[in-house]
Amino acid sequence: MKRFRRIMIVVAMVMASCTMASAQCSFRNTAFKSGEFLSYNLYYNWKFVWVKAGTASMYTVESTYKGKSAYRSSLTTRGNNKVDNMFVLRDTLLCYSSKELEPLYFRKGAREGKRYTVDEVFYSYPGGKPHLRCHRQRNDGSHLWKNLTPGNCVFDMMNIFMRARSFSSANWKKGHVVDFPIADGKGTTPARLRFNGTTKVKADNGKKYRCVELSYLEYEDRKWKEIVRFYVTDDQNHVPIRLDMFLKFGSAKAFLTSMKGVRNPISSLVK
């Protein structure tokens, strides 16, 4: 289940190649507005039986960061007491982005069993070029700091999610692949997105949606390994409806239970 927090990376990868081709780290927002709230049920496959493992929720509001207008978005995942004997999942993610969707700040606090770590990424743009200050607080309380000045725009899992929801995969063909780096407290990591086409998915709210299907892969042991397969609404909102997570010790799924305060009509709803 620890890979669940990575789902925002996956959702965010849509059209990531376009962001990396530009030196400008700003983008227009067409997908969300202040007050949007998304909630999910989490399920874990335990000895060939699917059990409800907990919930997740994401909330976005208008705020300020260092005196400037910004969006603040948070994601929380909570395992329930029934599965705490298998694993303990208590994750909280927070990000700030400018109104032009430039990354400003990212924080991830993750508790898995008895282990607790904190990742932070601080962004600045001296001379119009991105500069990252990455921070990792390890489980033993020690700290790791790293400064990066990449040649292109870099995004963490939350900020890229906020940005990429305004992208479009309309011109992608099945099998299309996009490579993309993601930042965390230790630095940047290579990842890959593969477009699998469109399909229909039923959410835990009892409704069915036309969705774009994509796979998120990471390079491990000299090969690309699928980590998450996810489905987002095939409309301007690009709301994640279902996520299939392939873990080291089993598999997990997440299904949307409700969406509130969305910006655009849900044209992907199947009647």
Describe the 3D structure.
InterPro entries: DUF3108 (IPR021457). Residues 1-23 form the signal peptide. Keywords: Signal. Strand 4 and strand 5 (103-112) form a beta hairpin. The two termini are 33 Å apart. The longest helix has 8 residues, at 157-164. The chain has helices at 7-12, 16-20, 157-164, and strands at 36-46, 49-65, 68-79, 89-98, 103-112, 115-124, 131-137, 143-148, 177-184, 187-202, 208-220, 223-233, 240-247, 250-260, 269-270. It is built from three helices and 15 strands. It is globular. The protein is 7% helix and 56% strand. 37% of the residues are buried. The model is unreliable at 12-23 (pLDDT under 50). The chain has a 15-stranded antiparallel beta sheet that branches. The chain is mainly beta and 271 residues long. It has one domain.
Question: Could you give the topology of this structure?
Answer:
Blueprint: H1 7-12, H2 16-20, E1 36-46, E2 49-65, E3 68-79, E4 89-98, E5 103-112, E6 115-124, E7 131-137, E8 143-148, H3 157-164, E9 177-184, E10 187-202, E11 208-220, E12 223-233, E13 240-247, E14 250-260, E15 269-270
Antiparallel strand pairs: 1-2, 1-14, 2-3, 3-4, 4-5, 5-6, 6-7, 7-8, 9-10, 10-11, 11-12, 11-15, 12-13, 13-14
